[in-house]
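Table S5 (text form). Sequence records supplied for joint modeling of the two-component complex.
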Amino acid sequence: MSKYHGIIFAYSDAPELGDLTRERTVASLPFCGRYRLIDFALSSMKNAGITDVGVIMARDYQSLLDHIGSGKDWDMSRRSGGLRMLPPFGLPHAHSGNYGGTMEALNAVASYIHDITADHIVLMLGSLLANIDLRDVIAQHETGGAEITAICSDGPAVGLNHHYLLDENGFVKDIHLYQGDDPKALKSLEGYIIHKDVLLRMMEETAARNHYAFHKHAIMGFLADGGKMDVYRHKGYVCAIRTVEQYYKASMDMLVAENRREIFPTSRPVRTKLHEEVSSYFGETAVSRNSLVADNCIIDGEIENCIVFSGCRIGKGTKLKNSIIMRGVTIGENAKLNYLIADKYARFSDGMELTGNAKLPTVVPKGTSI
Amino acid sequence: MKKSCIAMLLAGGQGSRLYALTQNVAKPSVPFGGKYRIIDFPLSNCANSGIDTVGVLTQYRPLQLNSYIGTGQPWDLDVSDGGVYILPPYQSAGEKGSWFSGTANAIYQNMAFIESYNPENVLILSGDHIYKMDYADMLREHLAHDAACTISVLQVSMEEATRFGIMNVGESGYVCEFEEKPKHPKSDLASMGVYIFNWEKLRAYLIADENDPNSSKDFGKNIIPAMLNAGEKLWPYRFKGYWRDVGTITSLWDANMDMLSTTLINLYDPAWPISSRSPVCPPTYTGEHAHVVHSIVTEGCEIDGDVENSVLSPTVVIERGAKVLYSVLMPGTVVKAGATVEYAIIGENTVIEAGAVVGTAPDGSEGWGVATCGPNVHVKPGEVIPAGAMVYSEEEV
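The corresponding structure-token record, covering 767 residues in total, follows.
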């Protein structure tokens, strides 16, 4: 039995993703040809032997439930333990219909957390694009002498808000909101290994004061009481996706071999829901440059700098550039498309011309037919 | 519950004519058509036809096949009142036990398995055929004609007929004669090696055949002729569509090339999916210098070279300046910069170093053939492997 139990936060919404998350949570946003963002957190846990995992969600979770199913694609469909999807009890939250913060989300599933038999709980964001070696984090947590180990990055900006300040012993002494682009700052990836008793105490204290924020309330309270928090520096590509621009940039970053190796290392494979698929076919007139193409596509046109999800059809004479087309998108013949993010099952007729902008690609909503 | 029909899939053959590819694995688990292994076709056909109980008879090098089939989950055969069962030869109390001595003997040795499902009919399948077929439709004909055995037949040209078991059909429409590889065929209906038997009848013939010391314990050579001689009703089920036996290097290469044509066999039809157990890989990356035309490519590949008229399994790497033409590349093969692979089949995880040449285009000479590298072969820089050659690694896996 693992000493570690996972909790993944999949409740957050991101208004700046617009139509891309109108009918799904950020955690179930399709990414890189065949994945959903939550696959990265689930796979990190699976690859560290953690298969008892709770996924906290609040609303718009149909696509998430459909994607995760019983959890068997991550070996989390277990007779004892395994995956638990944790929707809200009843209709919560007068303010927005969503959790105001991490502590509110945890308190909403307090009975589940109380029943956890493992000593340590691994908290991760369901919307973070990173392949974190949790085995390595756990090794540091077990020797670091702290009650909490926080996962952070000292690389480029990651799209999250907090960074850590350390004392002379290397433990966290303060948390600041991240401003500017200080490359040396220790940027929080909002992933933690935390002793279960510590988490329960934080939950009780924040609930008693009607506090809901993790960093501002729970962690600052923990540090003020003299608690010890260590930091683990994750090396490798990281992006928290909250806006269309971030989504587009992170997707295009996957065209770079080095980024791909960091996100999809062979030693820590990223698992996802398996669809019945067949190989892709590149026709007599196909051209495919600097692009990622998933299975079950038939490509007769020309693609350059594109991410093509499974089940897409690209007709003869079509030129598709700098675009992301999600599962089942069909493009007719002789179309000219540039800087698009076409959501699932969008259809483009013959001769269609549509161009977005490099800074702001045009999002074509799910199922649109133009 | 009595089952109307269960399937027995013969997957024990060595596939000796594929030697380099089947040195360490059974023929049904040889990769095929990019995403698949050969056995995916009969297993998917079963699942799509509503046959949920399949016994897979294994004998030769079953390790990879066993782990590939697993619980049968990729084919939705992990059901509680049936499922897919690996059936190796076994020993009974007080007996020495023996290998399967023929196709009929393999079924004979597993009568207890069949009896445990108490089926009305048994479908006999081969693990080395590429086709999409609705066995439920065949079963309907079998029942409608009250046949003891229904044999799936394919119309072939009269020249080809000399290479097959040929069914001659009488006026009634039933099979009246069976000829194995006839010199002067009287009919163009070739047996596909797919049979549905009434189980009660088959059981009796299997027992009788087992007691005949002169029998070679084979369906085509012994059971079918015995049934014909006894006047049983044998119905020919006329299959129309794509069907290939992939028992030789040439036929395996040919059938892979056929997958490039959706008019021969459409693998993209959502109504009849062929399923497989495949690793989760990121999508294929085609680089700045990639040129990929008229080819099948599977996830996890990294391509920066030229690929034409070829079939690529998952995680194939083709470096810049490498050329892959009219070839079949199995999972994990690597073709390094400047190497050329032409009219070849390359086994799993084989590495072809820079500047090496494997195979050549047909030159009309008699000795020409598809070049074959087995799995885990290391083709050294600049090495030349001629057309028709078969190279393999000496390692036991």
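Note: Chain A touches chain B at residues 32-34, 73, 254-255, 257, 260, 264, 269-272, 274, 276-296, 298, 307-309 (CB under 8 Å).
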